[in-house]
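In response to reviewer comment 3 from the previous cycle, which asked for concrete evidence that the modeling workflow produces usable outputs, we include below a single protein chain processed end to end. The sequence was submitted unchanged, and the resulting structure tokens are shown without manual editing.
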Amino acid sequence: MSLASLQMPLGVTGYQYEAAAQLAEGLALRVAEALRVAISERGRALLVVSGGRSPVAFFEQLAQQALPWKQVQVGLADERWVPLDDPASNEALVRQHLLQGAAAEACMIGLYRPAESLEQAAHLADQAIASLPAIDVLVLGMGDDGHTASLFPHSPLLDEALRADCPHAVLPMQAPAAPQQRLTLTLPVLAAARLSLLAIQGPAKLATLARALQPGAASELPIRALLKAPLQLHWSP
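The workflow returned the following structure tokens.
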């Protein structure tokens, strides 16, 4: 199976690479191009990325791109509810691998908030994120189970987070793996991005993507809710 063998929805484009290193470089070039367009049109750009170890090479490639980084805001599609000094922190990962060199001039907008409970932390993050403009460039990943951001199948608040009219920008979410307590942007915020890019690696994730492109409920494979134009799919074996 290859990316080219999948039937893409109208307005969805696919990019296939020989290896992960080429994917990271190609993704960085596409994202940088879209950020330049946003800055040219609106004077600033809001980039939202996903965490985890998979995008590290992409972050390091993007940090090397020639951009007016002072005009870029960087946010997160999801976060583990852990402090910034925890190795599992997505914000710490982004600061370490993306906000380096010239890219350190970008403004980081984190989701983590210290609070007495995950629900209170989500409420505080929701209040802060709700005032942001629409996302200019959204870079997502996907798990073998079809989750994206921290929209996990069978999570108690998944149906609420996937509502097109969900009134919250951020909701608490429970992941099946530690650290289980997460914060995630909701579907209305993610779907409003001017450009979305989905980056995945390996045959297992390609098989999941093929399933997600077939008709079915987004609650089974949450990535389904975001497989719509304008979207770029980036894949390497």
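The beta strands are 12-16, 45-49, 72-76, 78-80, 107-109, 137-140, 170-174, 181-185, 195-201, 231-236. We consider this sufficient to address the reviewer's concern, and the full set will be provided in the supplementary archive.
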